[in-house]
Write a structure and sequence with these properties.
This protein has about 260 residues and is mostly helical. The chain has nine helices and no strands. The protein has helices at about 5-25, 30-65, 70-95, 105-140, 140-170, 175-185, 185-200, 205-230, 235-259.
């Protein structure tokens, strides 16, 4: 199978399967969903950290060579700052529909606005995921597989949250599910675009991998871990540490086995 075919298959599978699995959570009670999602978040945190630190960054440094290590560090820092700015822009956009505004819209209007925003935001996020998967596959097939797994694991809890927002915005379960799957497949467009652009500029691939690592690190450290700290009891904390370790171990074993 060609590299492009592998990229498209794994990107589509990662997006569609995460959306379908998340859709399965709609069949569970809200209490059950709330009980399971935190465990998924802990596991996804470990998978993202493992993919960034054990797979993407080592490959980026190796591909850049001794003279390019400093550039990899710069790309990593720029990537983290860029994702911070992107998230800040989304938060600013949310603030326009937040009760802190002087003339806040009614609750139903805010809910509908949030549903629309989450679809656009998720489409952009998934497109970026496709770019990251493509960059990884173009460096090494095994690295591409590991990256697709990491994207898949962190998409599931995010997709569950997205569905909750869509339902809160007044959508039916069927419509929310269909839109969520459609938006998840925008990753395929990002992957295809990245393949043809990066194929013409292979020298930037190591730095694209560094940006991919920055994305995973930022999501894990800035978005997921703070949520885990909301519960500090000993039992929950131990479960979180174990699930994070399992996520890291999965990536380590997958990467080692692939090679």
């Amino acid at each position: 199978m060609s590299t492009l075919a592998l990229i498209l298959v794994f990107t589509a599978a990662s997006g569609a399967l995460s959306a379908l699995i998340a859709g399965g959570f709609l069949l569970l009670s809200e209490a059950r969903r709330n009980a399971i999602v935190p465990h998924l978040v802990s596991f996804a945190t470990g998978a993202l950290l493992g993919a960034a630190l054990l797979a993407l960054l080592p490959h980026a440094i190796e591909a850049a060579g001794p003279g390019g290590t400093h550039g990899i560090g710069i790309a990593l820092a720029v990537g983290i700052i860029a994702f911070f700015v992107l998230e800040k822009m989304v938060l600013w956009r949310h603030c326009h529909a937040d009760p802190c505004e002087a003339h806040a819209p009614q609750e139903r209007h805010r809910a509908r606005a949030s549903a629309t925003l989450i679809l656009w935001g998720d489409a952009f996020h998934n497109t970026l995921d496709g770019v990251l998967i493509a960059a990884a596959f173009m460096t090494d097939v095994h690295l591409g597989i590991v990256t697709a797994i990491a994207v898949f694991t962190h998409e599931i809890p995010q997709e569950v949250g997205d569905l909750a927002i869509l339902l809160h915005g007044g959508m039916s379960r069927q419509r929310a599910m269909i839109l969520n799957i459609a938006v998840s497949l925008t990753s395929v467009a990002g992957a295809a675009l990245a393949y043809f652009l990066l194929a013409r500029a292979m020298q930037v691939l190591p730095y694209a991998l560094a940006v991919a690592a920055a994305s995973f690190l930022y999501v894990a450290v800035a978005d997921l871990i703070p949520g885990l700290h909301r519960k500090v009891d000993a039992r929950t904390s131990i479960q979180q540490v174990l699930l994070i370790a399992i996520g890291i171990l999965l990536i380590a074993v997958t990467h080692e086995f692939a090679h």
